[in-house]
């Protein structure tokens, strides 16, 4: 899919012009050749439009322009289809859309405004909110009979889904929270997911123009003529999220949509464009839209897969929607049907035959509940114990805590003979826990000293001074150093296993390598000292094993 990335240039976007294909996958950004031809195409289209206010009968761009041509797969040439030729619609890039005067023009007015082409050309970053697309379609009172009608397979199946409480939302994760919020909007008729194509129904056409405006703004690398061409191509369909007018009359606001072409015989669909209006991005609309699309494509079109060419900016979004970089669909099925691009990444999504895509949140909630219940059967980790009394001090210093007195420890399966429990079996089975702890402490002291005495230990001897390295603690969230480790060793209470001590040392080395680049002396010191340290640990373990 194309996105507003400006780094995608003509060089890495050249498509394989040898491959006949019915439609561009707009996933890949437009090549410069498209831009060069845009002017000619617009001129031709405008000339046609000026003859009659009806959409031009001649399709644009010229048939010689193979970048913009829309040819049917394997011989079914849509350009030569007389019905489709009539459907070609000129872009309203430079003019407000003017509906045909002879078709009830007196009862409707369009306010699909022209887009600011300069800002569109510059693109927008995901984090920068640009001016909202004017994708609103104004209807005079009484012209819309049933608001925006939902399409079979698009209506949420379970309208009676229970409303989440705030508590639920906190416990269920952002995905479910967003999905359920949008489901509630749908149930309240404040939001609709519809699927329209160029069928000359006024209401549908107006929504398509609204969607075209969003695509034009959000996909600035894509020539607007090309967007219009595919959007209005009768073989393409657009699943849209719209806000119906309050009370059924007034303004239908298009929030976003996905335009795709179903290949019914091959049972896959090619996603051409996908965008959400700037003000509504990252609120879950894109995900819900994709879920509606999948359900519609499966239930209505009988599709099993989607394919799309994604550019770098869009790959992350598609991955989150279940698209993979691996193409499992046999090449014979799709090759020659969709455009080949150099630079765009072909991605695939298998549509599950059973998943309730528009009600995933309910399913996930039920699965989560089942897993929680099973965990509770196997564990008592849900029990919370009070530890307040352990924070008391005795004579100014922290109260000594016996491990066996920690509430809940025994309930969690701990037993006193686990003193010194470690992956590293150091000591023989004989001896009480106090003796074992003494042996462990002695070993840890030796290991600490071998680090402290090493010539590469100097960067680690003290905690990093934030005055010397101001951003250190922004990057390293769990700092550690030899001095701190030394204090823990001195307490003789902290390291109850060798693992704990080794883990602290490892964290010290990893922190150093995270903050410093490999060519620095610090990085090299960390690696050398770590090698030395691990050789000493191994030696200790081996001598411990021999003595057993
Ligand atoms: N790259 C990486 N991740 C992205 C992303 C992108 N471009 N866009 C959205 N995501 C992530 C979101 O952060 C979110 O992740 P989370 O679930 O971990 O929080 C997830 O995808 C879904 O986000 P959602 O809010 O449902 O998506 P959206 O409403 O913002 O719609 C787009 C996504 C891509 C359609 C929308 O951002 C858009 O119109 N972008 C501009 C046009 C474009 O790039 N189109 C795609 C190619 S044609």
TrEMBL record:
<dbReference type="InterPro" id="IPR000182">
    <property type="entry name" value="GNAT_dom"/>
</dbReference>
<feature type="compositionally biased region" description="Low complexity">
    <location>
        <begin position="20"/>
        <end position="33"/>
    </location>
</feature>
<dbReference type="InterPro" id="IPR036427">
    <property type="entry name" value="Bromodomain-like_sf"/>
</dbReference>
<dbReference type="GO" id="GO:0010484">
    <property type="term" value="F:histone H3 acetyltransferase activity"/>
</dbReference>
<feature type="compositionally biased region" description="Acidic residues">
    <location>
        <begin position="78"/>
        <end position="103"/>
    </location>
</feature>
<protein>
    <recommendedName>
        <fullName>histone acetyltransferase</fullName>
        <ecNumber>2.3.1.48</ecNumber>
    </recommendedName>
</protein>
<keyword id="KW-0012">Acyltransferase</keyword>
<keyword id="KW-0805">Transcription regulation</keyword>
<feature type="region of interest" description="Disordered">
    <location>
        <begin position="1"/>
        <end position="107"/>
    </location>
</feature>
<dbReference type="InterPro" id="IPR001487">
    <property type="entry name" value="Bromodomain"/>
</dbReference>
<feature type="compositionally biased region" description="Low complexity">
    <location>
        <begin position="40"/>
        <end position="64"/>
    </location>
</feature>
<comment type="similarity">
    <text>Belongs to the acetyltransferase family. GCN5 subfamily.</text>
</comment>
<keyword id="KW-0103">Bromodomain</keyword>
<dbReference type="InterPro" id="IPR016181">
    <property type="entry name" value="Acyl_CoA_acyltransferase"/>
</dbReference>
<keyword id="KW-0539">Nucleus</keyword>
<dbReference type="GO" id="GO:0006338">
    <property type="term" value="P:chromatin remodeling"/>
</dbReference>
<dbReference type="InterPro" id="IPR018359">
    <property type="entry name" value="Bromodomain_CS"/>
</dbReference>
<dbReference type="InterPro" id="IPR037800">
    <property type="entry name" value="GCN5"/>
</dbReference>
<keyword id="KW-0808">Transferase</keyword>
<feature type="compositionally biased region" description="Polar residues">
    <location>
        <begin position="1"/>
        <end position="19"/>
    </location>
</feature>
<dbReference type="GO" id="GO:0005634">
    <property type="term" value="C:nucleus"/>
</dbReference>
<feature type="domain" description="Bromo">
    <location>
        <begin position="452"/>
        <end position="523"/>
    </location>
</feature>
<dbReference type="GO" id="GO:0000123">
    <property type="term" value="C:histone acetyltransferase complex"/>
</dbReference>
<keyword id="KW-0804">Transcription</keyword>
<dbReference type="GO" id="GO:0045944">
    <property type="term" value="P:positive regulation of transcription by RNA polymerase II"/>
</dbReference>
<keyword id="KW-0156">Chromatin regulator</keyword>
<feature type="domain" description="N-acetyltransferase">
    <location>
        <begin position="198"/>
        <end position="352"/>
    </location>
</feature>
<dbReference type="Pfam" id="PF00439">
    <property type="entry name" value="Bromodomain"/>
</dbReference>
<keyword id="KW-0010">Activator</keyword>
<dbReference type="Pfam" id="PF00583">
    <property type="entry name" value="Acetyltransf_1"/>
</dbReference>
